[in-house]
Structure formats: structure tokens, C-alpha cells
Amino acid sequence: MAARATQGSLLTGDERARIKRIGEPIALLLGRLGLSPDALTIAGFGIVLVAAFTAAAGAWIATAAILILGTLFDGLDGTLARATGKTSDFGAFLDSTMDRAGEAAIYAGIAAGAAMNGTTEVIGLATLALGAGSLVSYVRARGEGLGVCANNGIAQRGERAALLIVGLITGGAITATWLAGALLLISVLSAITVVQRIRFIRAALATAGSRA
Questions:
Q1: Using CA atoms, how far apart are residues 112 and 180, in angstroms rounded to an integer?
Q2: Hey, how many other C-beta atoms are within 10 angstroms of the C-beta on 186?
Q3: Within 10 Å of residue 102's Cβ, how many Cβ atoms?
């Protein structure tokens, strides 16, 4: 049994569960229309790709609107899989892979859009935010390989997506400096999350070693 962690997050486990329950009727409806959990995963990735193209065009507010849809759509695949008893290791693998690919695509789009707009600081910060966010996911994956599910931390993927959406909206409505600030905040909070997860994994492995 893998050790698990949920503490240290902006959203509690109960809050995340309530959000998932809200999406269950939508997921079941899509399932009745013939969509499988894996199909929902691919569709969600497609929405993020559209957002990446609008970001590359420098349309920050449009990108935010599409990402809001993508964020609402995200998680329906897992909800449908659990509700219909169709959970699988491959489905979890595909979901995680598409999440990482989508995150890379959206930050690449933002960097391209920033280059077109001449906001060079956004280019560097988008790259930094992508790297820091990827490290958060990498640490969790390595922990799970050691039997420790470190899904804790102050800036998990949902929190990072929310901050990015706010940054895109304010960056488009006010000034790109707000988007740069959001990207910097994502990077800093992601770094903190990495430390939180490393500390948790070290403690869990030490506890497991003492019991051996």
C-alpha cells in the first residue's frame, strides 16, 4: 500500500471531492452519448491545444476562456471511469500523459504569443513556470515508483491552472505585467510544492524503513 498525502494544498480533499461530484452528472451524460473515459481524456487535450493556438496568437482573454472550459472538462474522464467501473491503469497513464502534454502546449503557446507581442519577460517566465510545474509532476511520479503517493503541495495542477487563467485575463484586460506576475507566482509556488513533496517522500520512506 502506497503512502499518501493530501495536506498542504490550497484545496482540501473534501473540497476536491465535492467538485468532482458536481461534474458527475455531466460525465454520466457524456458516457450515455457513447464517449469512453479515454475519449474524454483526448477531447480535453484537444481543448487545451485550441487554447495553445489562441495563446500563440496573443489572445490572452480568449485563451483564458478556453482554458476555463478545459479545466471544467478536466476530471470528467476519471469521474466517468469511476462511476461506470471502467477505471484502468492505462486510463490513468493516458490521463497523466495528456495532462503533461497539455501543460507543455499551453506554456509554449504563451511564449510564442509573448514573442509576437514583444513581451520578452513573459517568454522567460512561461518557460520557468513550465519547468517548475513539470518538476512537481516528476517528483510525484518518482515517489509513486517508490510506493509513496505524494499528491500534496500548495500548487497542484488545479491551483496552477487557476492562477494561469487569472493571469491571462488580467494580462489581456490590463497589462502583460499581470500575466508575468502570475507566471512568476506559479513558478515560486511550484518550487515550494516540490520541496513539500520531497520532504513528505523522505519522511514516508524513513518510516517504512524503520518498520522493515
A1: 14
A2: 26
A3: 23
Q: Rounded to the nearest 5°, which phi and psi values hold at 154? A: -75, -25
CB 63 within 8 A of CB 51: yes
d(CA 15, CA 102): 24
Q: How far apart are CA 164 and CA 176, in angstroms?
A: 12
Task: List the grid coordinates of 16.
Answer: 476536491
Tell me which architecture the domain covering 3-211 has in CATH.
Answer: Up-down Bundle (1.20)
Question: Residue 5: is its pLDDT beyond 70?
Answer: no
**Distance, CA of 133 to CA of 157 (rounded, Å):** 8
Between the CA of residue 166 and those of 68, 104, 170, what are the distances in Å? 10, 18, 6
Q: What is the pLDDT of residue 1?
A: 43
Sign of torsion, CA 159 179 102 29? positive
Residue 77 pLDDT: 92
Whether 116 and 170 have beta carbons less than 8 Å apart is answered as no
**6 pLDDT more than 60:** no
| Residue range 51-70: mean pLDDT, rounded | 96
Q: Which residues contact 55 (CB under 8 A, 6 or more apart)?
A: 63, 106, 109, 110, 112, 113, 168
Active site residues: 99
Q: Tell how far CA 135 is from the center of its chain.
A: 12
